[in-house]
Amino acid sequence: MPHSPNWTREEHIVAFNLYCKIPFTKINENYPPVIELAKIIGRSKGSVSRKLANFARLDPALRARNVSGLTHGAKGEEIVWNEFHGNWDELAYESELILAKYKGISVESTVDLSDLVEIKEGKERESVVKTRVNQNFFRDTILASYNQTCCITGIQIPRLLIASHIIPWAKNKKERMNPQNGLCLNALHDKAYDKGLITVTPDYKIKISAELKASLNKETDKFFLPYENNLILLPNRFAPDKEFLEYHSRNIFIF
Q1: Are 109 and 220 in a shared domain?
Q2: Enclosing domain of residue 246
Q3: What CA–CA distance (Å, rounded) separates 56 from 42?
């Protein structure tokens, strides 16, 4: 029986999930994750590749760089794009639920819960699973947007990279999953950013606190001082929101 030419809402959602989690430059029908999703949803790899390119046409970060996807697309892409941008927390989780269903697995099996000694059944367990699933989605999206590169140092070792929240996780539930609330940092600079010892200003410049400068010495200043006033490496999409950067600079950063 031939596959319907019309994409369903669920297919649009899992396609957008993949759009978020792979670099823009990898959108082509021969990229393994594209081939994998095509098999999972029963579409051709060319069809999936074109759908991802259709999402790219809606991306303001790409338009700002005069980069665009395909010029024509479907209404379904616009609907899903607008839904995600208005509610990242719920729709990020929904996309992972749908993807797990297509794969024939539980969404719980996609996350590591081994560090938790005991998790009760019911709403408490569901909440923990949802948080872990969303954290994985956020990390995948941020690292893909920055091409697996620390935006301060240029380090490209994924195991050393962190998807850092600009506005802390606990401070703004609505923006927790918004990739424009993220920076890709190596573990050292992530810790410094979290503690307010460094910041990134709304004009994307790196600032170092006086407190940190005072504690540096000949052995450690090389990890921070050479980057002061440099511009961060901007992502190829989901550029950090300037209002979020302003929040960190005003409320977290130690002058």
Answers
A1: no
A2: 146-251
A3: 22
